[in-house]
Amino acid sequence: MDQHRPNPAREALYEAMRPLHLTPLWEVLHALVPKSPTTACVPALWRYREVKPFLMQSGELITAEEAVRRVLILENPGLPGQSAITQSLYAGLQLILPGEVAPSHRHVQSALRFVVDGRGAYTTVEGERTTMHPGDFIITPSWRWHDHGNEGVDDVTEPVVWLDGLDIPTLRFFDAGFAENDDSKSQTVRHPEGSSYARFGANMAPVRHQRSGLTSPIFSYPYSRTREALYTLERNGEIDAWHGVKMKYINPTTGGWAMPTIGTCMQLLPKGFRGKPHRSTDGTVYCVTEGRGNVQINDQRYTFEPQDVFVAPSWSKVSFDTEQEAVLFSFSDRPIHEALGILREEFLD
Ligand code: GTQ
């Protein structure tokens, strides 16, 4: 019998059991256990040159201190009102003007910063400050105090914008979020800048180091080093037909992902690249570091330029093509998929 034809007797039964908070599985089973992922998340692209004027206008109407974090959320058009760019991840563009401070706080949610525009800002994590340069990938681990500021550098004072990526929707799903404000606006700097990088960024670690926590002890991965690695590999011809030259950021003490809930990568697409399509279960957010190109996400095609952000939903077919070299930062919830054994991917022709 056709389950979708009106069936008054069944409808009456469902109606009668509703006060007891009972519902029939057979009406929803196909949707609960789909043949392949059916996400509400849709492909989308945010052009930085269209977004920046709104960020700057926000800068005139509210201070970083009043806002706590002056951020425009990049909300997936398929997930309205959810402050989510994919089902599990949050993304936003944060502006900090010269002289401003975004006050110190901590939360269970892990955060990454990918610096998009301007120089002279810093992030302080647990008493160690790091200066932010375009293309740097910076981590604020779960439950670590962090504040941001913009004091300028080398006589340059300019607005600074970075992409925030957080696991906010994941923590919301687990109902496991806690947060606290610090007593002081700005943390006292207790460690010289570069301490963490000196300890863990030279393929070495202090001999008496004992692992603590799940997040990489390097909290700033400078673009200068990343870029050099990618361009060297490209010159050596190590080009993947799907990804170009794609490297993941790792925790040097484990070889695993730099963050427990968010996987981060940087990839170089060579000039004239005609990438093959790929799909995976981890919906992915991309930010254009350098260069221009095109991305095909299912039947959507976008041209991207520096500082643009775009999102490819879970199981969407993604392929890239370029006329010039391009470099893309990306992040997804892949570490969770791997930890749970639910990652699937396909490399298509
Ligand atoms: O910088 O701590 O975009 O707590 C959203 C929540 C940034 C931050 C966001 C946050 C932060």
Rg: 22 Å
Enumerate the distinct ligands. Answer: 2,5-dihydroxybenzoic acid
Q: Could you report the average pLDDT, rounded to the nearest whole number?
A: 96
Helix count equals: 8
Q: Which architecture does the CATH hierarchy give at level 2?
A: Sandwich
Poorly predicted residue ranges: none
Write down how many β-strands occur, each being a DSSP E stretch of 2 or more residues: 22
CA-based shape? globular
CATH level-4 homologous superfamily? Jelly Rolls
What is the CATH topology descriptor? Jelly Rolls
Sheet with the most strands: spatial strand order: 1-19-16-21-14-13
State the secondary-structure class: alpha+beta
Helical residue percent? 10-25%
Note the beta-strand portion.
Answer: 25-35%
**What count of structural domains?**
1
**SSE arrangement, N to C:** HHEHHEEEEEEEEEHEHEHEEEEEEEEEHE
Biggest sheet features:
6 strands, antiparallel
Domain Cupin type-2: 93-155
EC number: 1.13.11.4
Organism: Noviherbaspirillum pedocola
Protein name: Gentisate 1,2-dioxygenase
Briefly summarize what is shown:
The protein is α+β, with helices and mostly antiparallel strands and 349 residues long. It has helices at 8-17, 29-32, 48-61, 64-67, 168-174, 195-200, 223-235, 334-340, and strands at 44-46, 71-73, 90-96, 101-107, 111-117, 121-125, 128-131, 137-140, 146-150, 160-166, 179-181, 220-221, 245-248, 263-269, 278-280, 284-290, 293-297, 300-304, 309-312, 318-321, 326-332, 345-347. The structure holds 2,5-dihydroxybenzoic acid.
